[in-house]
Amino acid sequence: DAGVTQSPTHLIKTRGQHVTLRCSPISGHKSVSWYQQVLGQGPQFIFQYYEKEERGRGNFPDRFSARQFPNYSSELNVNALLLGDSALYLCASSPLVRASYNEQFFGPGTRLTVL
Amino acid sequence: AQSVTQLDSQVPVFEEAPVELRCNYSSSVSVYLFWYVQYPNQGLQLLLKYLSGSTLVESINGFEAEFNKSQTSFHLRKPSVHISDTAEYFCAVSVGTSYGKLTFGQGTILTVHP
């Protein structure tokens, strides 16, 4: 079975630009979460979506937004990119909305570099 | 709010030696605890988790962790490490009301030398 997939693998943008990252969860998983992992730090929670609704949001500015589609795939959008947005962006899926006690399955991530 | 502290940023050990990676957490409510491993250029993989019941949990590849509520710790141990255990290890917590939110520690880089 395919795991969580993310695209693109790598991305280079300049300050002020906009970026869209994509995630496809494991088949049958309805919950998708997004995390930002800055080099040398642990992942930081950005969003969780379940059944196309936002169920949780971390401490990130409004420049960050996301959505989930009917097939449960998800997009993370970041506007007005800053140098500090350079990071590995991880997507995780889980079969249940109460993913807090369930295993979350992580994708390989998208490495975003902002110049 | 909950927080996680991993007390060692890097742990070098020799092959077949024992290892302990330390994790302490802070939370005002009951937590679920996890250890994830991240190999270079890969995503995170769940190593083991504590949800309830026995405070000692084990993984299929020889790691174990013990939940200590009084010390708010969830240290990861392995009695004999292999070269292939070289990776970054993350401790994480979640609470019942948080849906999908995992709070991670800063990570510990385990390097196993031959």
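qc> The mean pLDDT of chain A is 92.
qc> done
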